[in-house]
Design a protein that fits this description.
It contains 16 helices and no strands. Helix 12 crosses helix 14 and helix 13 packs antiparallel against helix 14. 52% of the residues are buried.
């Protein structure tokens, strides 16, 4: 009994306390995201599906992934524009319903060109959701807990992803790849139904209603574009974990789809357990947001660099831990950084471009990663990714200097 009381007072209750202060609407948005992401079992296995099941070459898979990224770029841009015009609620409903039907149809495409087109359309419709969701998250969050609101939604995403790949690996082993497309489609439709039930405009409570009479265009925000370029590079490196890395696990370490799913699920499990307490602690310390992003990006680069130090199987687990901590730090604070800058401008544009930075990484990251592996091998690919991380770190340092300069100029202008 004393042990249970000790565990409750020292571990469980402090963990639960990190979730205090978040609005009901943020919790609903997190649940909708969880239902949606728990079903996206195809995405982590897409490169394996195309190479092992469809018989595509690694180079062709790279082009499919480029179509994936292009669809994401166009969808994110359209989503940002539509969010500013018709509001985040309508955009999210349209996206979830459309994605559900498109995922089901994707399994019936069998040729290289039709799969490229199908993936493009799926991602175009699916990624209109992301800028709308971020604007909704901004509206449903108080100023002091933006980063934790983002973290809660990320927990939902990663909890879905941690279970999804494990279940997906079991389904592939027992039934086959085709059933995953049905599950993906149905869960998108379930998420749409839940969204309509709980977040209708008349029901949802807006906490941060930002009205700007003359909103600043993101395209005139030079500092934002330093950040944008850094996020493109970070995304380029990060996305290797969802395209070239599963092939690395399969070809170099001979892992099965089930074990690959477990390893990727481990990433989601760590985020679920550790991210909220970590972000709460960092928020309380009021550390520099850009400085935290620099630290997160450095961990990501280290996670790939160490893969060439040894072929001991434990190194891929260490790499996964480093990558996970890096993304736990960088994503919430990069998102909070954008929310902060978006307050004086068109929010849909800012959130759309933030999403597009990772979509551009999808366009080039998967394809170039596949080609690097095909022509240079895995070891050289990891060195190249480490080099790109260093460029990202330099841009983030430039961003830190520029933000500090901007802050000092504002102080001077008020005097």
């Amino acid at each position: 009994m004393k042990l249970l009381t000790y565990l409750n007072n020292k571990i469980f209750q402090p963990y639960l306390d990190t979730f205090n202060g978040l609005s009901r609407e943020v919790w609903w948005l997190a649940l909708i995201t969880f239902v949606n992401r728990a079903g996206t079992m195809v995405i982590p296995f897409l490169s394996l599906y195309l190479t092992k099941h469809m018989g595509f070459s690694v180079s062709k898979v790279g082009w499919v992934m480029t179509a994936f990224g292009l669809g994401s770029v166009v969808g994110s841009w359209i989503g940002g524009k539509l969010t500013d015009k018709i509001g985040y609620y309508k955009v999210m409903v349209f996206s979830l319903i459309g994605t559900g039907f498109l995922f089901v149809g994707l399994q019936y495409l069998t040729t290289f060109y039709t799969i490229c087109m199908g993936i493009f359309l799926v991602m175009l419709v699916a990624d209109t959701f992301r800028p709308a969701m971020f604007v909704a998250l901004n509206a449903y969050s108080k100023t002091e807990n933006k980063a934790r609101s983002v973290t809660l939604v990320r927990l939902a995403i990663n909890l879905g992803f941690s279970g999804g790949p494990v279940i997906g690996g079991l389904i592939i082993t027992a039934i086959g790849y085709e059933s995953l497309f049905w599950i993906d489609g149905i869960t998108c439709l379930l998420a749409a139904i839940l969204l309509v039930m709980v977040l209708r405009p008349k029901k949802a409570r807006v906490l941060d209603n930002i009205i700007v009479e003359n909103p600043k265009s993101v395209y005139n925000d030079k500092i934002f574009f330093i950040f944008f370029a850094a996020m493109v590079l970070f995304g380029f490196v990060f996305l290797q974990y969802f395209s070239t890395m599963p092939l690395y696990y399969k070809d170099v370490y001979q892992l099965s789809e089930f074990h690959i799913g477990l390893l990727m699920g481990f990433n989601g499990f760590l985020i679920f357990v550790l991210e909220m307490p970590l972000i709460k602690k960092l928020e309380d310390k009021q550390l520099n947001m850009v400085g935290l992003m620099i630290f997160g990006a450095a961990l990501m680069g280290a996670s790939l660099f160490i893969l060439n130090l040894s072929h001991w199987i434990g190194i891929i687990i260490i790499g996964m831990v480093l990558m996970t901590v890096g993304e736990m730090i960088l994503f919430p604070f990069s998102n909070a950084f954008v929310m902060q800058r978006a307050k004086g401008g068109r929010q849909g544009e800012y959130m759309g471009l933030y999403t597009i930075s990772f979509s551009i990484a999808h366009v080039f990251g998967h394809n170039m990663g596949m080609h690097f592996v095909d022509y240079l091998g895995f070891d050289s690919t990891w060195y190249i990714m480490t080099g790109l991380t260093i460029l990202c770190l330099l841009l983030l340092y430039w961003l830190k200097v520029a933000v500090e300069k901007e802050r000092l100029e504002k102080i001077e202008s008020y005097k």
